[in-house]
Amino acid sequence: MQTCSADGKNDRALEKKGSKRSLLYWANRLTQWLSLAFLGEWAFYGVFRCPFVVPFISCQNCPILTCPGRVAHTYWGVWAVWLGVLVLFGRAFCGWICPGGLVSRLFSKAPTAKTLHPDAEKTFGYAKYLVLLFCLLVYFFMNQPRANIPIRIGEFWPAVLQTCQFASDLWLLRSATLVLLILSGAFILLAWCRFACPMGAILELLKSFSLFHFTKTDQCNGCNACKRICPMHTRPDEANCTNCGDCQSICPQKAIDFRFRFK
């Protein structure tokens, strides 16, 4: 593996400089933290207590009455927001709203977080589509089975332990893999978001049909300052770009615009 750039100190200085002068940067961080406060509990339930193999998509049938996705009808609201953001801003849900994206970003701040060799990154970039295919097979051909019996209510972590005791091997494998991939972000830069997230895979496939996006202009000289500062290690409107806008304020050529895609 290699580091995000040849000079990590310069990258951090570049990020600090950009964040000081960019209101967009602070708006992005504020939105992420607010989203974590609103959706974070539901995300934790989906990982550790959801009885289904594929979480977050069968909330209307969930037996866990204390889950926020059922109690507050978060299920329909989040998916409506998810689709609306997709139509307007492509994969911006990942870069602005997703609680998992924020957690992955926090892990990416670890000094041990590295990028892979470019060839390896390109190869592993297809892995998220395999995960998406697995989720589709489980949902449509296995009828989204209930793989554990989370009948206990009360304190969260004791309930999680009981959930694991009664869970099937498939549920345990799913949950352990998900947690390990998120934790691996401390060693491989945003491993979950870039290489494994099935929702990110859907958004990546459809983002080219969105109405607005950040993109490079003719003034771009290929310096890759945007790629070095990007949490997803990419450039505007390329693979894994989440329209977070972090790159705009640090571009030395002012060659990044936010515009209507079909102008």
The radius of gyration over CA amounts to 19 Å
The SSE string, one letter per element, is HHHHHHHHHHHHEHE
> How many β strands by DSSP?
2
Q: Label the overall shape.
A: globular
Largest sheet: 2 strands, antiparallel
Strand order of the largest sheet: 1-2
SS element count, helices: 13
Count of separate structural domains:
1
Helix content: 40-55%
Distance between the termini: 40 Å
Please mark out the parts with pLDDT under 50 across 5 or more consecutive residues, or reply none: 1-9
Write the layout of secondary structure elements.
Layout: H1 8-21, H2 23-48, H3 68-71, H4 74-89, H5 92-97, H6 99-108, H7 118-124, H8 127-140, H9 156-166, H10 169-183, H11 191-195, H12 198-206, E1 212-216, H13 225-229, E2 256-260
Antiparallel strand pairs: 1-2
Task: Describe this entry's structure for a reader.
The protein has 263 residues and is mainly alpha-helical. It has one domain (8-260). The protein contains 13 helices and 2 strands. Strands 1-2 form a two-stranded antiparallel ribbon. Helix 1 packs across helix 2 (23-48), helix 2 crosses helix 6 and helix 8 crosses helix 12 (198-206). The chain is globular and about 60 Å long. The relative contact order is 0.16. Mean pLDDT is 86; it is low at 1-9.
